[in-house]
Inverse folding.
């Protein structure tokens, strides 16, 4: 699996691009033009190398897509194996997963953007969407467990909660700019505050308007 | 402006399609294949009429897009002129706008979906995106006013709040199925509960786990 974070290509002795940096450019081009509208010719142009030089790194455009999606999905799936996601109260585990998901999303923004825009037109896309669904189901199970433990409100169907929660988190890819004034950590704090505690100030803390 | 709600085409004496029903089909096809990938030929095929019969209703594909986006944007903009959005406490006005936005989004789902997927590649799209930004700015001003009135928490930048709020609302188009078990009204209740009051139960209401 690809281990590089997509920011600093690790060169392995060979001059020019390595697979990771080819992948970084491919993901940017896929996000800009759409995967289907991107030909190997367009990729070669954006990389400034020949088509045959791309084939040195990957056998096909589909392999670039598969590697890119695996980078996003592998990082998300790994969250669920971390200790913070697997022991303790369910609402704490849920909050942990939300925070780590935002970290992955902001640090691998182009990769997660590609994943979230998939429409499932090819086998590679459908396989990735199935892995994404599995991830969502595991988070939905956490929402349900936190509700059963009496920590989350019981008047919202856990499936609705999970959809709204992912809706909020995933929408970040549409506007978040890494390196700007809003750090990923503060964004995670804000999102967790809004979703778990709400935007309303408790009555006791209110200034009389 | 188009007044029909996109569900029941109003026929005006002429046999076959009227403009509204042509529009309904066009919006469905744009959402499925993407606006740019949709030719007048594909539209004609989906409508089961000839290309020249389409031109009887609208001069061009761009006009179909413009009419469709105007239906979504006109409905959203009209919310801000309703009494519930223009008088009373800012947090109540904000909640009103959120609820009505969800109503528009669920009742005109394909039209709002088209609007939300725009990438701004043509002048028509850029004009629509500018109108959408104006709408967002007016809601952002409500968020700021509610914060100044001491009703919303002060530790989140109002711009972040607005982006997360729209992120949550807009994500509904990706999964909501009108006519299913979850009514638009219950969905609005759930979203408002989560965003304004939070998913956590207040400590006093908790069952000991």
């Amino acid at each position: 699996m690809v281990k590089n974070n997509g920011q600093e290509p690790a060169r392995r002795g060979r001059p020019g691009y390595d697979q990771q940096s080819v992948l970084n450019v491919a993901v940017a081009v896929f996000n800009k033009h759409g995967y289907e509208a991107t030909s190997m010719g367009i990729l070669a142009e954006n990389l400034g190398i020949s088509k045959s030089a791309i084939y040195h790194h990957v056998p096909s455009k589909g392999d670039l897509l598969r590697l890119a999606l695996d980078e996003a999905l592998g990082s998300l799936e790994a969250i669920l194996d971390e200790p913070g996601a697997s022991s303790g109260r369910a609402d704490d585990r849920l909050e942990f997963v939300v925070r780590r998901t935002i970290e992955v999303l902001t640090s691998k923004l182009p990769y997660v953007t590609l994943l979230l825009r998939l429409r499932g037109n090819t086998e590679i896309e459908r396989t990735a969407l199935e892995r994404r669904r599995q991830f969502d189901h595991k988070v939905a199970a956490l929402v349900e467990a936190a509700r059963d433990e009496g920590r989350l409100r019981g008047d919202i169907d856990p499936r609705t909660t999970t959809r709204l929660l992912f809706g909020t988190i995933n929408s970040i890819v549409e506007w978040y700019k890494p390196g700007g004034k809003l750090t990923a950590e503060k964004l995670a704090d804000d999102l967790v505050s809004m979703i778990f505690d709400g935007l309303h100030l408790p009555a006791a803390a209110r200034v009389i308007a």
Observations:
- The CA atoms of residues 62 and 142 of chain A lie 34 Å apart.
- Confidence is low (pLDDT under 50) at residues 1-15 of chain A.
